[in-house]
Design brief:
The structure holds two protein chains of two kinds.
Chain A: H1 2-15, E1 32-37, E2 40-46, E3 51-56, E4 65-72, E5 84-85, E6 91-96, E7 100-109, E8 114-117, E9 125-127, E10 132-138, E11 146-152, E12 159-169, E13 172-179, E14 184-186, E15 192-197, E16 203-213, E17 218-224, E18 228-234, E19 242-247, E20 254-255, E21 260-262, E22 265-271, E23 278-285, E24 288-289, E25 293-296, E26 312-314, E27 317-319, E28 327-329, H2 331-338, E29 342-345, E30 355-359, E31 361-363, E32 366-368, E33 371-381, E34 384-389, E35 391-392, E36 399-407, E37 428-435, E38 441-444, E39 459-467, E40 475-480, E41 482-483, E42 491-497, E43 512-521
Parallel strand pairs in A: 3-7, 10-16
Antiparallel strand pairs in A: 1-4, 2-3, 4-5, 6-7, 8-11, 9-10, 11-14, 12-13, 12-15, 15-16, 17-18, 18-22, 19-20, 19-23, 21-22, 23-24, 23-25, 26-27, 28-33, 29-30, 30-43, 31-32, 33-34, 33-42, 34-38, 35-42, 36-40, 36-43, 37-39, 37-42, 39-41
Chain B: H1 2-19, E1 39-53, E2 59-61, E3 66-87, E4 90-111, E5 117-141, E6 148-168, E7 174-197, E8 200-220, E9 224-251
Antiparallel strand pairs in B: 1-3, 1-9, 2-3, 3-4, 4-5, 5-6, 6-7, 7-8, 8-9
Classes of the chains: A mainly beta, B mainly beta.
Chain lengths: ~525, ~260
C-alpha cells in the first residue's frame, strides 16, 4: 500500500507541472505616420529612434505649438494630447498596441541672427541668454567709425529700431540714442545697445561689443576633392594677397587663379589637380608667405566591373562578377522558379561584350523585380531574401553617369498599398548613395526592411535616376550626387531595378532595364 | 390473427432449445478461474526518453534535402492503475495516464533545389495530457490456461490536454498557438496477458471501440481565440493505441469460494 501511495504522490507531482500559456502577444509595431503643427518648416519621422523631429520656423513659439493633426498606425492608440504642446523640451508620448512604444516629439527652431560690418573678420558671436553680440574686426579697423551694414537679432517680424551708445566728441563722451537705418556708421569704441521691437510691441535690448583682432597671414581651411580643392585663408591688410600651391614633390609654386578676397579673407578653388597626390598650399603677398599647409587629394576610385563585362554562371544563376565581388543580384532567389532575371546581354550593348539586362518576372507566388546592386546576396528568408547593400568605399564622387535603356510594361501586379498603380507604365530606376553605416545595410525583403534614402542620417550623398517611358535604344544618363554632409563615406550603394516598386511586389512582368558603361564622376 | 402469428414465431424460436442440451462456451466453472475474486491488481508503466541531434554542424537526413538539423525531443509517460476483482475474472478499477512530450527544432534547412532552400529556426512543440478513467475488465483464460489469458476492458475516461506550438526567433518572443482540450471517451478494448510469475503478468491491449467527445480551445498569441467540438466514433483496430503494461496481483485475506 505504501508503494501505491508513493506512486500516487509521484503522479500528483507531475500533475502540478501543467505549463502556462506563456506565448507572447503579437508584435504590432505602433508608428507615428504623420504630424502637422503650426509653423512647421519640416517634419521628419525617424522610426528607428521613434522620434519625430519638427523644425519650426522663426514665427513659432516653442512653448506653445499648436498640434493640428497626428496620424498613427491603424491598430495603435494613445492618450489624448493637448492641442497646444510645450516643445521647449522633448515631448514624450506612448503609443499602445499589444506593446507600448514610447515616442518623442522633438522640436528645433533656428533663428537666423547676424551682424554684418565692414571689414568683419568672422561671423558675429551671439550669447543668446545674455542678449549680447560680439563682432570681430581687424586691428586696422578703427572702432570709432565702424560701418554696420545689416543686423538681425530676433526672429522674423522683429525689427531693430534704435541704438544707444557713447559718442566721443573732443574730450567728452556723450550718450546718444538714435533710430537705426542700415547701413550706418557708429562709434563702437564703447559697448552699445540695440533695441529690437517685436510684433506685440515688446522691446528687447541687445548689447553690442566690437573687438579688434590681430590678423596674420595663414591658410585656415582646405577641402580637397580628387581633382580640385577649395582653399581659405586670411591676410593682413596692405599688400595684395594670393594663394599658391604645388605638389609636395615639386619645387615651383603655382598661383591660384581668380581668388575671392573679402575683408581680410581670401579663398580660391584649385582645379586640374591629380588625384591621390600630396600637395602644399599657402597664402602669400609681396612681403612674404604664410606657413604651408599640406593636403592629399582623394583617390578617384572606379569599382570593378562598371561596364558589366565580367560574368559567370553557376547552374541557373548568373553572377555579375569577375575576379572581385562588387555586384550581385537577386538571381539566387528566383533562379529555381524562373531562372535568372538579371543576365548579361551580348546583343544589346554600347561598348564591350555585354550590358546587364534586368527583366521583371513572376516567381511562382510573387512578382519579382530584377535588380543589380553593389553588395552581396546573403540568403533566402521566408518568402523574401536577405541582401547586404554596400561595398567599402571612401572616395567622394560628384555623380554617376552611364548608358541606360528601358522597355516598361503596364503594371500587372500590385501590392494593396499600390493598387492605384495597376495599369500604369512601370518605372525603372538607378539609385546611388554614399553612407557611413558601420556595416553593409542588411535588406530583409520579407520584413520590408529597406534603406530609407530620405531619412537615414547615415546617408552622406544621394542621387536617383528614374525612367517611366520606353527609350529609343541606349541613352546617356547622369546623376548628380547631392551631398547632405561633409563626413567621409564608408560604403557605396548603387542599385538598379527594372521595377522601382519591386520591393513591394509591384510592377510589370516583362519590364526590362539595361545598363552599360557606368562611371563615377569626380571633380 | 396477430396473436396466432406471434405464438408461432415464439414456438419456432424455442424448438431448437428444447431439442438440444443447453449450449455453454465454458466461460464459467471452477477450473476457468484466471484471477480469483477479491484479488487486487496494481499496474504501473513508466516511459522516458531524451534525444538530441546536431550538436555541431547539424544532423542530416536525406542529405541532399534536409540538413543542419539541431534540436531534440523528450517524452515522459506514467500510467498507474488499480483494480479490484468483485467476482472471479471480473474487476473494476481506476487508472491514470500522464504523458508529456517536448519537441524542439532549433534549426533545419530544407533544400529543394540548388538555390531554393527553406530555413526553419526555433520551432517548439509542447504537449501534455492527464487522463483519468473508471474501468472494468473481464478476463478469460486461454484454453484453460492459468498463464495465458485474454481480457476485454470497458472504460469511461476524462482527460485534459494542453499543448503549445510556437516559434522563438532572435527577438526572444514566442509566436504561436496554445491549445487546451477536454476529452471524454468510452472505450472497449481487448487485450492479452500472460503471467511470468505467480502474481505478475505482462499485457498487451489494443484499441477497438472508441467513442469520444473533445472540446478544443485555441488561443493564438493570447489574442485570437478559436474553439471546436469533435465527436469521434470508431470501431476498428487502432494500432496507435496499442498499450503494453505490467500488473501485479495480490490476494486479500478473504477466502475465495
Amino acid at each position: 500500500m505504501k508503494k501505491f501511495l508513493l506512486i500516487l504522490a509521484a503522479v500528483a507531482l507531475q500533475s502540478s507541472c501543467a505549463f502556462k500559456n506563456d506565448l507572447d502577444y503579437p508584435v504590432v509595431r505602433a508608428d507615428i505616420l504623420s504630424v502637422e503643427v503650426e509653423h512647421a518648416k519640416s517634419v521628419r519621422i525617424d522610426g528607428a529612434s521613434r522620434t519625430v523631429f519638427i523644425e519650426l520656423d522663426e514665427r513659432a513659439d516653442l512653448s506653445a505649438v499648436r498640434l493640428t493633426k497626428m496620424e498613427v498606425t491603424e491598430e495603435a492608440t494613445y492618450d489624448p494630447l493637448p492641442d497646444i504642446l510645450d516643445l521647449r523640451e522633448p515631448f514624450s508620448l506612448t503609443l499602445k498596441t499589444w506593446q507600448e512604444y514610447p515616442w518623442t516629439l522633438q522640436a528645433s527652431q533656428e533663428i537666423e541672427r547676424y551682424v554684418r560690418c565692414t571689414n568683419q573678420i568672422q561671423d558675429a558671436r551671439f550669447n543668446i541668454e545674455q542678449r549680447t553680440v560680439f563682432v570681430y574686426v581687424p586691428d586696422t579697423q578703427p572702432l570709432s567709425s565702424l560701418t554696420i551694414e545689416a543686423m538681425k537679432l530676433e526672429p522674423e517680424g522683429w525689427e531693430v529700431v534704435s541704438t544707444t551708445g557713447y559718442v566721443s566728441a573732443s574730450e567728452h563722451q556723450t550718450l546718444v540714442s538714435q533710430s537705426v537705418h542700415f547701413p550706418m556708421e557708429l562709434d563702437c569704441v564703447m559697448e552699445r545697445s540695440f533695441e529690437v521691437l517685436g510684433p506685440q510691441n515688446e522691446i528687447v535690448a541687445w548689447r553690442f561689443k566690437a573687438l579688434q583682432v590681430a590678423v596674420k597671414m595663414q591658410v585656415s581651411e582646405v577641402n580637397p576633392h580628387s581633382y580640385s580643392a577649395r582653399i581659405r585663408g586670411t591676410f593682413s591688410e596692405g599688400a595684395t594677397p594670393r594663394i599658391e600651391y604645388r605638389k609636395a614633390s615639386d619645387t615651383d609654386w603655382t598661383t591660384a587663379p581668380d581668388p575671392v578676397i573679402s575683408g581680410v579673407g581670401i579663398s580660391a578653388r584649385l582645379t586640374g589637380l591629380t588625384d591621390d597626390t600630396d600637395y602644399l598650399c599657402r597664402v602669400a603677398d609681396a612681403t612674404g608667405a604664410s606657413a604651408e599647409m599640406a593636403f592629399h587629394t582623394r583617390k578617384a576610385v572606379q569599382p570593378d566591373n562598371m561596364g558589366f563585362e565580367d560574368w559567370y554562371q553557376d547552374g541557373k544563376v548568373w553572377y555579375p562578377q569577375g575576379s572581385t565581388r562588387v555586384w550581385d543580384s537577386g538571381n539566387k532567389a528566383t533562379a529555381s522558379f524562373t531562372g535568372s532575371l538579371t543576365t548579361p546581354d551580348s546583343s544589346f550593348k554600347t561598348e564591350g561584350n555585354y550590358s546587364v539586362k534586368m527583366e521583371s518576372g513572376f516567381a511562382v507566388v510573387k512578382f519579382a523585380s530584377a535588380s543589380v546592386f553593389t553588395g552581396s546576396f546573403v540568403k533566402l528568408q521566408g518568402m523574401g531574401a536577405l541582401l547586404d547593400w554596400g561595398i567599402p568605399f571612401t572616395s567622394m564622387p560628384v555623380g554617376l553617369s552611364g548608358k541606360i535603356a528601358y522597355q516598361p510594361k503596364a503594371i500587372d501586379y500590385a501590392d494593396a498599398r499600390y493598387a492605384d498603380k495597376m495599369g500604369q507604365l512601370d518605372t525603372g530606376h538607378i539609385v546611388i548613395a554614399l553612407t557611413d553605416w558601420d556595416e553593409p545595410f542588411r535588406v530583409a525583403s520579407a520584413d520590408e526592411k529597406f534603406v530609407d534614402f530620405d531619412n537615414d542620417p547615415a546617408i552622406i550623398a544621394y542621387g536617383r535616376y528614374a525612367l517611366s517611358e520606353a527609350t529609343n535604344g541606349f541613352q546617356a544618363f547622369h546623376i548628380d550626387l547631392e551631398y547632405r554632409s561633409e563626413r567621409e563615406p564608408r560604403w557605396l550603394v548603387i542599385v538598379a531595378a527594372s521595377s522601382s516598386l519591386g520591393d513591394y511586389f509591384t510592377g510589370a512582368v516583362g519590364s526590362t532595364l539595361w545598363l552599360d558603361d557606368l562611371s563615377l564622376e569626380y571633380d | 390473427m396477430k396473436r396466432i402469428f406471434i405464438a408461432l414465431l415464439l414456438g419456432l424460436l424455442c424448438l431448437p432449445g428444447q431439442a438440444q442440451e443447453r449450449f455453454e462456451r465454458g466461460f464459467s466453472g471452477k477450473n476457468k478461474i484466471f484471477i480469483p475474486r477479491n484479488s487486487i491488481g496494481m499496474g504501473l508503466s513508466v516511459a522516458f526518453s531524451n534525444n538530441g541531434v546536431g550538436d555541431d554542424t547539424g544532423f542530416s537526413i536525406l542529405p541532399s534535402y534536409v540538413g543542419e538539423i539541431k534540436g531534440g525531443w523528450k517524452s515522459f509517460a506514467i500510467h498507474p492503475s488499480a483494480e479490484y476483482f468483485v467476482k472471479d475474472n471480473w474487476s473494476i478499477g481506476v487508472n491514470f495516464d500522464f504523458v508529456r512530450n517536448i519537441f524542439s527544432l532549433d534549426s533545419a534547412r530544407l533544400a529543394l533545389g540548388e538555390t531554393l532552400a527553406l530555413d526553419i529556426q526555433g520551432w517548439n512543440y509542447h504537449r501534455q495530457s492527464y487522463t483519468g478513467a473508471l474501468m472494468t475488465r473481464y478476463y478469460v483464460p486461454f484454453m484453460g490456461s492459468r498463464i495465458f489469458g485474454w481480457f476485454v476492458e470497458g472504460s469511461l475516461s476524462g482527460g485534459f490536454i494542453q499543448s503549445k506550438l510556437y516559434s522563438q526567433e532572435e527577438d526572444g518572443l514566442k509566436h504561436g498557438t496554445y491549445q487546451e482540450n477536454l476529452r471524454f471517451s468510452f472505450g472497449l478494448n481487448p487485450g492479452i496477458c500472460f503471467f511470468v510469475a505467480e502474481n505478475f503478468d505482462f499485457e498487451v491491449q489494443v484499441g477497438l471501440v472508441d467513442l469520444s467527445l473533445t472540446r478544443v480551445n485555441q488561443v493564438e498569441n493570447q489574442v485570437k481565440t478559436s474553439s471546436a467540438w469533435r465527436f469521434n466514433a470508431s470501431e476498428k483496430i487502432d494500432l496507435l493505441s496499442i498499450k503494453f503494461g505490467a500488473h501485479a496481483y495480490f490476494q486479500t485475506r478473504k477466502k475465495n469460494k
